[in-house]
Amino acid sequence: MPINEQVKLVKKEQLKNDTFKFTCKSDKISNEAKAGQFVEVKVSKTLDPILRRPISIYNIDKQNGTFEFIFQIRGRGTKLLSEFEENDLIDIVGPLGGGTFDFKKYKSIAIIGGGIGVFPLYELSKEAKETANVDIYLGFRNKDFVILEEEFKKVSNNLTITTDDGSYGKNGLAIDYLKQEIDLNKYDCIYACGPLPMLKGVKALAEEKNIPCQISLEEKMACGIGVCMGCSVKIATKDDTVKYTRVCKAGPVFDSRLIEI
Amino acid sequence: MNTSVNLAGIKMKNPVTVASGTFGYGQEFSEFIDLNKIGGIITKGTYLKPRAGNKPPRVCETASGMMNAIGLENPGIDYFIEYYLPFLKKYSAAIIVNAGGNTLEEYVELCKVLNTLDIDGVELNLSCPNVHAGGMALGTTYEGVKEATSAVRKVLDKPLIVKLTPNVTDITLTAKAAEDAGADAVSAVNTFLAMAIDVEKRKPVLANNTGGLSGPAIKPIAVRMVYQICKAIKIPVLGLGGIMTGNDALEFILAGATAVSIGTGNFYAPDTSIKVVNEIEDYLKRHNISDINDIIGKLEMN
Q: Residue A128 to residues A135, A136, A173, B210: CA-CA distances in angstroms?
């Protein structure tokens, strides 16, 4: 069950100019958290901005009772969040999300991520590697955007880094390299998080190859707990019926066949 | 100390309710707070049949507030009866169902069903700005509100609250229409029709183009409107619009509201409604007021 807690920011690391990693202390949240879940973070002590920011959990350390999230400054809210300092208390609701990464039954998996979409894939890789072969494909715009290479190397059997302009790693899109390896490596599940064109491509590829695929979606949220119906995504239907489901409650991780993106 | 109020026949242990569309049907919030501590729960706007709602994006943030254009996504009354009503009955909070419809006939059919249920009251949604039929389409004129309220009143014996839109020139006219048609109370206000534009894309942020503005940004306008309504009609008023604290709630109560609703505040923190209950009690203690009813409408004008 999610809780609303004031958690202590025990470690603040600046990974890039505009990207921060926060390590937060909460026995309850870290103990409950599952790979693929997120937290709703209050970025201000005042009423403005009023809405929390949904941010995916990057790493869970149940032993030490900490969890980590990484965020890039994208606007007013994340700018305010970046101003928190170590030992400050942050008001957090979490862990949230009913749809999490399901990986226990698979033996050979591919994980593909793009840009800031790579963050929720770390905990998945870390946990899945204990029982499965994990190949990771991460795509970035260019060399300056490449992040967490060493970290992902440690939690994978093979890590492929690509950049759109070839300035680092392999040249091209991450999905191009997944396509090259997909038949050879006989993946039994694919996991994806990243920009919409990547997710669409991965969904199509997985369906073409008839491989199960789980994708993590991002959507603007108000409540984050399932009541406001603000973060809806279309459910795939055989006819013209329009149906939505909630990213915060049914997701953020979905079986790619069940949704339309 | 007495904090209980009677809103048009709906007895509540305190004047704090949660607003339609910001609390679902209570289940998600029961993981965070004790629903027994709230005076009443006003459900998500519910229709006779399930409704998909609008295309996303449906929400965006604004200065001290937010906009939404959900489009009344809801599972329909049958689902409510089977799954949500039994859940809500486990708690002592009053159950008020927010009723919507695409046509007047749908409102009436729905209220016939609601009349048979073990609920405390009905809030008639004549004020949603995000649907093309029903909602605000019926709620912006004296005639429209009177016609819809009268039609529903004929089939509904339970307490009837009409939820008013602020998107009118004179809200006392629509409030009067509800009173004239036999409503037991009005709730005011729903969201303000608003628009936000993404200048990079040169498009409105919300897929619906416009949405309803809520949160602290609208509170002073809501307080003014509630004050005007309370002067104009005799039936009780349920006041809402940007309430985040006990003092916010007391502004509405002093302006004449018998009860209040927490809306967007529920998104700010899951326990906002409980905090408001506690802060109202603290205020009463601090001012040696033994009964909350003694301060309803006790605003002293300059």
A: 11, 12, 24, 44
Q: What is the separation, in whole angstroms, between the first and last Cα of chain B?
A: 29
A228 to B22: CB separation less than 8 angstroms, yes or no: yes
Q: Does residue A207 lie within any of the structural domains?
A: yes
Domain match, A92 and A114 both: no
> Looking up tokens 């994978």, which residue turns up?
A156
Question: How far apart (Å, rounded) are the C-alpha atoms in residues A124 and A193?
Answer: 11
Give the domain extent around B290.
5-57+72-193+213-295
The contacts of residue A9 (CB under 8 Å, 6+ apart) are: A22, A23, A24, A84, A85, A86, A87, A88, A89, A90
Measure the N-to-C terminal CA separation of chain A; round to a whole number of Å.
29
Average pLDDT, rounded, for chain A: 96
Last residue of a domain, one of A96, A128, A145: A96
Strands (E), chain B: 5-7, 10-12, 16-18, 40-42, 59-62, 65-68, 94-99, 121-125, 160-163, 185-188, 192-194, 197-198, 203-204, 211-214, 237-240, 259-262
CATH code of the domain covering residue A54? 2.40.30.10
B119, B96 contact by CB (below 8 A): yes
Q: For residue B224, which of B175, B171, B276 has the smallest C-alpha distance?
A: B171
Search chain B and give the residue with CA nearest A221. Answer: B59
By residue range, what is the domain housing residue A78? Answer: 3-96
pLDDT of B153 over the 80 cut: yes
Are B5 and B13 within 8 A, CB to CB? no
CA-nearest residue of chain A to B211?
Answer: A230
Do A7 and A44 share a structural domain? yes
Residue B6 has which token pair?
């009677």
Distance from C-alpha of B279 to C-alpha of B64, rounded to nearest angstrom: 21
CB contact (8 A) between residue A93 and residue B66: no
Query: Hey, which residues 32-61 in chain A have their CB within 8 Å of chain B?
Result: 42, 47-52
User: What is the tens place of the pLDDT at every residue in A83-138?
Assistant: 999 999 999 999 999 999 999 999 999 999 999 999 999 999 999 999 999 999 99
Could you give the CA distance from residue B11 to residue A140 in angstroms, rounded to a whole number? 59
Residue B267: Cβ within 10 Å count: 27
The answer to whether residue A81 sits within a structural domain is yes
What CATH number corresponds to the domain at position B168? 3.20.20.70
Amino acid at position A212, single letter: P
Determine the average pLDDT of the residues in A148-175.
Answer: 96
The β-bridge relationship of strands A158-163 and A170-171 is parallel
Query: Is the model's pLDDT at B132 over the cut of 90?
Result: no
Q: Higher model confidence: residue A244 or residue B136? A: A244
Could you give the ipTM of this predicted complex? 0.93
How many of the other CB atoms lie within 10 Å of CB of A54?
Answer: 24
pTM: 0.95
> Does B83 touch chain A if contact means CB atoms closer than 8 Å?
no
CB-CB contact of A75 with A134 (8 Å): no
Q: Measured between alpha carbons, how far is A256 from A212 in angstroms, rounded to an integer?
A: 8
Interface contact A93-B23, CB threshold 8 A: no
The residues of B carrying an active-site annotation are 128
